[in-house]
Amino acid sequence: MLSGGRIFRKKLALVLLAIVCVPFTVMLLHRDDNGAHLEDELTSELAHLRQRVSQVEMINQARRMDLSLLTQHVNRSLPWKGTYVFVTCMYSSPDLAWRSRITSAICKPLYMNNTNGEEFPELSRLLLDPERSQNLRLPNIFSFLPYLLNNPLSTVPAFVVGQGKTHASIVLGVPTVKRESQSYLLPTLASLIASMNEEEKNDTLIIVFVAETDLEYVTVIAEKIKKQFGDALQSGLLEIVSPPASFYPDLNELRVTLNDPVERVKWRTKQNLDYAFLMMYAQSRGMYYVQLEDDILTTPGYITKMKKFALKKEAMNLEWFLLDFCQLGFIGKMFKSTDLPYIIQFAVMFHNDKPVDWLLDPIIETRYCPHDTKKCNQIKLLKWIHFKPSLFQHVGTTSSLKGKVQKLKDKNFGKLALFTPHKNPPAKVTSPIKAYKQFTIQRAYRGDSFFWGLMPQAGDDIVFEFSKPVELHGYRLRSGNYEHPSDLLYNTSIEIRPIDPERVKGSLKISPGEHFIGVGEFNDLGIAEGKIDPSQFGQIGAVRLVIKSASKNWVIISEIMFDTGSG
To answer: Transmembrane segments in this chain: where (predicted)?
Structure first.
């Protein structure tokens, strides 16, 4: 006889198969020259469906585990003689299953008197026999992180902002920490989001894990993200989460392993626990999980490329464990959500012993390999599959480990343009900022290269004096590039000088004696763009960038575009 859970899963699978297969079957009955293409689509959809069913089964199993633990806990709390309780739970909404475990369920106790166990005779005998009722205590996270028992909220996020999106095809995990000098988080998110189309955005969830326990700092980061990516937060594409301080051990009491310096041991131990927390939070939110870092760039269409590659392997019945979309470290590593418990378990068990990316080989060897080394190497090639060209590039140079500088680049990523040229109106361009070698502001304005200047100082400016007055409809200026993402313009204003200052005499922000009017600022991403109404300002004689504070870095201007409405 099938249990209720198996019957449910079987019916669910049949319903989903019917929904997906019927339309494709109809199309295949009317095959034409595109028949092979339709077969490919059907195969891909079936692979997608199988993975969805696996994810639902994983969530269902987690709920059953909750119920079992709750039942055990309730029965242990009751005296041996009296009334015993079984607990049944009905989840009010599948969409709430990702939330805090038992709190998303409506639980009903079923009481059974110890003198009347006819309805559940075997369970009655079990409960009434103390020796038989001593349940096995299975290892869990508290077995390896016992300090978590000191605080019941140790595994509950301290901070969450988002719409609670579930059923995504791909979940991107982006952990971030406070760095000594430069943060790459906002440019990373800009690249990830700008490289998606609307369909991809609807099918994806980006979880930013701020791995800091200072809530004031977490709130500041969240506000910066909200300012730049408010629409992504509102739509559910983006979510922000941070852990409680009690999730981490006393890092001063760690064992020194691998003969590493103490500070490195602390850093990689915390990083392992960061990954474990993020994966535990993400595992029920989508079919596939992709581990990223906060200092990367990507290319357009990367979501579709990853999903198609994964579904192709599923359709070929290849039981892969890891799809690798970047050759560096732990970047671009895709796992099925149903396989995340293996990564989480190893990261938790060996959090003080090895970096998590060093654990990937041992996981595959332990799970799949025989003792034959040659066969094991062949098996690894089938379980850890590399995709080329790489879809992610590491751009950061300042590590989250104090004093560590890393200039790692993925050679399989290809090249990104270092500047974006535009045809601008003729102008004389001047600036007191000294250019590095041939990377002058004049060449950047002509679209021949980018401008690379030594550290700007407060009061420095860049002036674009048009040869003839122009009707200016808009502008876009971008600082930094993917090789030097930290060489940005901050605290810099955009000003225009109308030919007829009397026309806008009543306007605010007119610089005394110069008739320049402020129309914009560079944002936290180092970008300034906006529209200008010619009917309000008339013809423009010049545009000026004014730097209001000294920079610790050099500056790159990789795009200069003045829209004069000429096409």
So the answer is: 12-30
